[in-house]
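Page header: ASSEMBLY MODEL / two components / 464 residues total.
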Amino acid sequence: MTVCNDIKEKISLYIEGESEEDDRLKIESHITECKICKQYYNEMKKILYELNNINEIDIPENLHNNIMNEVRKINIEQKKNKSKRMISAAACFIGMCVVTFTLLDIQNKKALKLAEEAQNPALTRNIEDMPNQGYERQSGDMPAQSYQKQSGDIIYENLKINIKSQDIDKIFEAAVFYDPEAVLNDDNTIDFSILKYDFDDFIKKLSDIGTAEITDKSEQNKTDEYNSIFDEIDSTDKQDGNAINSLIEKAFNMEMSANYYFIKIVPENF
Amino acid sequence: MSESDELLIKMVLKGNTDAFESIVYKYEKMVYSIAYRIFSNKEDAADITQEVFIKLFKSLENISKKPNLKSWLYTVAYNASIDEIRRRKGKDTLSSDEDIKGSEESFINTIKSDAPTPEENTLNKEKSRIIQNALSSLNEKHKSLIILRDINGLSYNEISEITNQSLGTVKSGISRARKNLRDILEKNGELKYL
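Prediction written out in full:
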């Protein structure tokens, strides 16, 4: 590499004060003697100046909104997934509790029987009769029987809410906040359920988005359907734990649903 | 990480989407500028900017442990742009918003005609356009180095972290990139207009 080429290679670092001491001395001495490199030095100074002062770029008008819309969609998805995970975890936990209580109940019954037998030798059985042959349940053994039937009526309440707003994303985001399973329909209406306890908060949120109004309210009294589940429990074989538990779960879900409003939101101006 | 960035990230992690919007407001121009300088194309720059902020939103929990959000954004914007250019290489799908030849001629004609002395800002705009056009002729590696160092003003150490190269490699790379830029300007006959 010729001296001039070497100088040209390093001259921009020299201009911004980033060259090594040896290079700096070499460049300073060279450009006082070499006109071509002196000119090169001046050109590079101008280029660096223009680069440092290049016009700022304006961002496109809709870019910010596009980014935030995407982020909100992802946020809703993440909340949905999180809730699903929590519901699964809760379901597993409840399932484990049911199994544990059932086993404890069986153990307690066994212990009681053995204690009874110990006190009353007439009841003592041979070792072959012992429970590892299969514990025979009797009426009253099922832990589910401790489940209390609700005394009041089971009423499902449906609300229709009209809202004057075109911001469907925000309305849907508000619904998903309370119900991860909220559904945004093709006609932009939204179906979801919300705890009656949270309803006032939800309405406040809606009022930030647009003018909301309850335009329809209807009730479905499901008390008979609910009571029929308990009739079914009474008539089911008490040894069929799965059937009993599934009926109890059904009754429990019906009770829980009575604590919710089922809502259809209809955004106007669509 | 700056205290305000740290606080904003914590707020987002607690579910406050508005705090994320503040982060976007703060850095969107910076990210967009890098992408625009690399692509010379508004649409591609907007796509990359969106990609960077979505990645940020999805990785906030990990990023909250990093020392510098700004540096992270530079790195992701740089890598996303370079990856995209490499992905398209050979497909001939890179397009520039500016008609380079047309803009050169119009500028040269303006100067040659020596019409009423142009306003200073108009002249600056023309100079910026000349530089941007020359930049778009550089290879992506040299272009990115000049954007990070000379336009965005990052230190050599920061660039070394972002590009994952040694300090010496970064310095010599930037020197060579500037030399190439000067050669392009000379070849286009535009050095005299700076």
